[in-house]
Design a protein that fits this description.
heterodimer; A: alpha+beta; disordered N terminus; B: alpha/beta; AUX/IAA_dom (chain A); Auxin-responsive protein (chain A)
Chain lengths: ~170, ~575
């Protein structure tokens, strides 16, 4: 006879409608979640909710696992991040800054001319684009890899390109 | 004339006549009913029955099936409970098809069709299937798992008269084998081929040749590895297709290949059903505009790459659509366009594109109201939405009294009315009161016992009900059990229903197919009581946390709440293939 214990000993406390019953109902997740303040994340991560079948979860939903490589000039190795973890550009940039310990990437989003770092990405067509031009969802969907260049390098590449063009005439 | 008199009259007819009359009964329910009339009808019916539907594979066993229906040709089997789709049933729970195939093979059943849903299908099963039934014609696997392309190769190689191989949303291990090349040159009988759920590449030359030599091919659904160039060639060879699932649909719209595709599409006058677009470039969509006008079924729910404005442009061409599956990227505005354009719409499914709240693309109650107002033939809906209101649901109920299936899923499971902050009881109440033919209902959002009072009172035809995070007390469940006379499947999660509700009318469960309760208030003791009193039920306790926690906790006592319980009526007692973590009481 199998030993049966109702594993997760969770307590269900329900308030009246409109009352404070919100957190208590998410019994399964409330036991797993150990991060404070992530209310929004919590409500979306109850096991099996929304009720989308696992095949569809893996294949149909737009913002599923979107792992892309990130390289930062000067860093010894690349990292991989999941774009579906981020809501918008600032969110992404903050994460990158933390991941690589370099600060100032965010400046490029506000002032593309004068920042030290230039965040660019390779899109589906193989072109390298400056981060921030298109809506976040469109970016996340088409981004294949990320690179944070040092402005000095970018300038050099541009110079070489111009030189090349100039000599053709 | 009463049944008794009628029966006496009917008994003057020889059995062949009865059999001929029964031939006209195509629905399983009708045939089941006539078999209950008297012994001779039972006998005639069972010897003439060729198609059998088994909604729960553990309700009977292969031996009984074969004994009763020796002329069986077509079998439909369903395995795991519905909530298995949402990862609530651990791997290894059961639902194996092998014993069924083995038994039928041994008994010389002339199997021609097999349709399986939520079952575990091993390569061995497929190999045995392929080699045991010389007239095998049709294999349909929906949401199954356990097989690889090796099993598919066996089917392709051995089933000489195969007409249909339809794989829908299965978890297949694609070993990148050459299964498609295994269809011999002599195979010319294919009518339907759907391999959209496979991940690996197929031999496209073999595919083209297969399509070319099967003149009866009506339905073809490709996987994402089949590029647009190949699609173009296939369409040239098979302009008679009526159901197409594109693979990848992305190319340079200015290229010659693309122009050829456009022309090939124009020639496909029979396409009524379209799906796929698994990898898509929106600029390629105009190629399908010419066929949109004739489409009755369109499934874009696996195409997150189509943006809202492109989707809307596409929909404008689809005036005859009856069945539409899309992502919520369409937005309320897009649903408004659907409402204005698709006057023949009967079934709508709007799936969430964004499960983790990263973006803000979900639809709201506005879209649903627009659809209900614009589409008079709407009878089936699955709607994932950001928010809902009672007022909207009341309006929808008024606009659409013809719903047969109504499934609403709010992304936050207990969100209240977005305007009044009240529970959504009144809204769903209006739906069940208005829709007298409702057979399937899924509720969500903030809900009290009141909604179940309404359901019990009004949902007279309801057969399947899905409940999550709803209700206040046992009364809720009691209203449903007492009121819904035709209830067949009840599935409940995370709701405060306990032993009192579970045990109030134990006989009810023998009139139902199954009951699922997880993260509710029922205890081990309650389940034991039920199992004791009802020998025709299997009461399964599923406990995945058992391993490794056993040491200190000896046998848990009856007061412990049960994590997951699944009970179902059965003629054959506890199943012998239950894994360790399943305890049949």
């Amino acid at each position: 006879m199998a030993k049966i214990c109702s594993g997760l000993e969770t307590e269900l406390r329900l308030g009246l409608p409109g009352g404070g019953g919100v957190k208590e109902k998410k019994r399964v997740f409330s036991d797993i979640c150990d991060e404070e303040g992530k209310e929004e994340a919590r409500k979306n991560q109850v096991v099996g909710w929304p009720p989308v079948c696992s095949y569809r979860r893996k294949n149909g939903c737009g913002m599923m696992k979107m792992y892309v490589k990130v390289s930062v000039d000067g860093a010894p190795f690349l990292r991989k991040i999941d774009l579906s973890n981020y809501k918008n550009y600032s969110h992404l940039v903050m994460a990158l800054e933390e991941l690589f310990g370099c600060f100032g990437i965010g400046e490029a989003l506000k002032d593309a001319e004068n920042c030290e770092y230039v965040p660019i990405y390779e899109d589906k067509d193989g072109d390298w684009m400056l981060l921030g031009d298109v809506p976040w969802e469109m970016f996340a969907e088409s981004c294949k890899r990320l690179r944070v260049m040092k402005r000095s390098d970018a300038k050099k590449i541009a110079k070489d390109l111009l030189k090349g063009l100039a000599t053709e005439y | 004339m009463c049944l008794f008199q009628f029966q006496s009259v009917m008994n003057y007819f020889p059995e062949e006549v009865l059999e001929h009359v029964f031939d006209f009964l195509t629905s399983h329910r009708d045939r089941n009913t006539v078999s209950l009339v008297c012994k001779s009808w039972y006998s005639v019916e069972r010897f003439s029955r060729e198609k059998v539907f088994i909604g729960n594979c553990y309700a009977v066993n292969p031996e009984r099936l074969i004994a009763r229906f020796p002329r069986l040709r077509s079998l439909t089997l369903k395995g795991k409970p519905h909530f298995a789709d949402f990862n609530l049933v651990p791997d290894g729970w059961g639902g194996h098809v092998y014993p069924w195939i083995e038994a039928m093979a041994k008994s010389g059943i002339n199997l021609e069709e097999l349709k399986l849903k939520r079952m575990v299908v091993s390569d061995e099963s497929l190999e045995l299937l392929a080699k045991s039934f010389p007239n095998f014609k049709s294999l349909v696997l929906v949401s199954c798992e356990g097989f690889t392309t090796v099993g598919l190769a066996a089917i392709a190689s051995n089933c000489r008269f195969l007409r249909e191989l339809d794989l829908q949303e299965n978890e297949v291990d694609d070993l990148k084998g050459k299964w498609l090349s295994c269809f011999p040159e002599s195979c010319t009988s294919l009518v339907s081929l759907n391999f959209a759920c496979l991940k690996g590449e197929v031999n496209v030359v073999a595919l083209e040749r297969l399509v070319a030599r099967c003149p009866n091919l009506r339905s073809l659904r490709l996987n994402h590895t089949v590029p647009l160039e190949v699609l173009q060639k296939i369409l040239v060879r098979a302009p008679q297709l009526s159901d197409l699932g594109t693979g990848s649909f992305t190319h340079d719209p200015d290229s010659e290949t693309f122009i050829k595709l456009k022309n090939a599409m124009k020639n496909c006058h029979s396409i009524r059903s379209l799906s796929g677009f698994l990898d898509v470039n929106g600029r390629c969509l105009p190629a399908i505009y010419p066929i949109c006008i004739s489409l009755t079924s369109l499934n874009l729910s696996y195409a997150p790459g189509i943006f809202s404005n492109e989707l809307i442009k596409l929909i404008c061409h689809c005036k005859k659509i009856e069945r539409l599956w899309i992502l919520d990227t369409i937005g309320d505005k897009g649903l408004g366009v659907v409402a204005n354009t698709c006057k023949e719409l009967q079934e709508l499914r709007v799936f969430p594109s964004d499960l983790y709240g990263v973006g803000n693309t979900a639809v709201t109650e506005e879209g649903l109201v627009a659809i209900s107002a614009g589409c008079p033939k709407l009878n089936s809906i699955l709607y994932f939405c950001q928010q809902m209101t009672n007022a909207a649901l009341i309006t929808v109920a008024k606009n659409c009294p013809n719903f047969i299936r109504f499934r609403l899923c709010t992304l936050d499971p207990i969100v209240p009315d977005a305007v009044t902050n009240q529970p959504l009881d009144e809204g769903f109440g209006a739906i069940v009161q208005s829709c007298k033919r409702l057979t399937r209902l899924s509720v969500s959002g903030l809900l009290t016992d009141q909604v179940f009072l309404y359901i019990g009172m009004y949902a007279e035809q309801l057969e399947m009900l899905s409940i999550a995070f709803a209700g206040d007390s046992d009364k809720g469940m009691l209203y449903v059990l007492n009121g819904c006379k035709k209830l067949k499947k009840l599935e409940i999660r995370d709701s405060p229903f306990g032993n009192m509700a579970l045990l109030s009318d134990m006989g009810k469960y023998e009139t139902m197919r199954s009951l699922w309760m997880s993260s509710c208030e029922v205890t081990l003791g309650g389940c034991k009581t039920l199992a004791e009193k009802m020998p025709w039920l299997n009461v399964e306790i599923i406990n995945e946390h058992e391993a490794g926690e056993g040491e200190g906790e000896a046998s848990c006592d009856d007061r412990h709440r049960v994590e997951k319980m699944y009970l179902y009526r059965t003629l054959v007692g506890p199943r012998k293939d239950a894994p360790d973590f399943v305890w049949t009481l």
